[in-house]
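re: ur question from yesterday

yeah so i grabbed the chain u mentioned. its 483 aa long if i counted rite. heres the sequnce exactly as i have it in my notes:
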Amino acid sequence: MGSIQTAEFSRRPSRHSLMLSARRALLFGLALFCAATLGQAQTVTTMYNFADNATSGATPWYVTLVQGTNGNLYGTTYNGGAEAYGTAFTMSTSGSQKIIHSFANGPSDGAYPTGGLTLGSDGNFYGTTQQGGTNSQGVVFQMTQGGTITILHNFNSFLDAAFPWGPPILASDGNFYGTASGGGKSGNGVVYRITTSGTYTTIYNFDVFHGLAPIAPPTQGTDGYLYIPVSQGGTSYCGTIIKMSTAGIVNSTYSFPCGAGGSFPIGPLVQASNGNFYSTTQDGGTNGEGTIYQVTPSLVVTVLHSFGATFGDGTFPGAGLLLATDGNYYGSTSDGGAYANGILFNTTTSGTYTDLYSFNNTANLLQMSPLAPPVQSTNGILYGVTEFGGTKNDGTVYSLNMDLTPFVNMPIFNGKAGQSVLILGTHLKGTTSVTFNGVPAAFTVLSDTHLSAVVPARATSGHIQVTTAQGILPGRKIFMIKK
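ran it thru and got these structure tokens back, copy pasting raw so excuse formatting
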């Protein structure tokens, strides 16, 4: 596969859709014969059908939803909306959807948003578009909960970068860090830093050896380093993982070996409590249909699962994984499964893998082609999107209930003593205490779905607990105290 630094690549309906259309047709007959024996371990419920019109978006592209301070879910669609250049939307957990921004293209707005949104500690969302802006090469934007957009940066391939694939991430220094797939000094893409006020800095320019055309955003480890899968390049030209400081100094690099070792990593890494990171490659593995892999902080990679080994397994996994509160990782594949329309799966950190659900668009116009993992709402339920399927074949929002209990979440799980932090949850009115690893904290309940708390002076790294009238809500993961 050639370089993906151009906007033309981003207009394709799916990386594998054309090459797999014939394959799906062949598999369909076999799927009908075998589906009864595969069984469905879980039921997926369609929450919303996108319709590609002025009040509804279409084809959410590699989007993982994010929860806002009001408890609703937020995301983007690549197409649809009033101007047909994509949308930002909000949806309640009961399925009520509303477009809050229709992208308009041109010098004052972006076009074709990809990858969804990131919630900042200020309660605003941050995201990117692949095109639009003053140079038609994409933008970084800030968006309020109500949908008011502020352009923070217009990409320019001659000066900095072009064609970002996803939102930047919030790091422990309060800045956002992201990747752009094109532009930079050698045209191979960049890593950038941007502040909430729009001060932009390119911190790293990719070369072929360290990788090129990054799609995944960075992940900040508990050690403070940024870990970034890069879709192509490296010694075998099958992608890399780089570890770098927030100043852009590369610490180490891993090159995917192609073949059984995996290739084309496009999903971000997610760190588990054991200190290792987990994600997926869209290609490679023993069957050439993608992998789940583990990588240590020293960049030692182990393949845990190769997709497509048995009939009914998924093929070509989406962009990365979700670490849920049960300690399992959840993800999706865009293809494969009993009906060749993709699946949902989970895996333990040791590699125990389970197919959970096969999407089926063949009979009932249900969901198909999930390109990214779901998100877990603080009510415990998982929510995700599919690129296609639904009543208009423009994609869907679905839910998956794994009987996981409610919890509290945060935009970022670290802070200093005296710092005010944002906490999301459910039924927070009537909260009686907030503790940081057992140390009581001063707090203010802002609504039934969010509150602010001050990191106490004696706190040490550990879990947050919020005590409400319904019981104790544990934090999603350990909160790290910065010195």
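noticed a couple things. Helices lie at 7-10, 17-38. also The longest strand covers residues 125-132.
anyway ttyl
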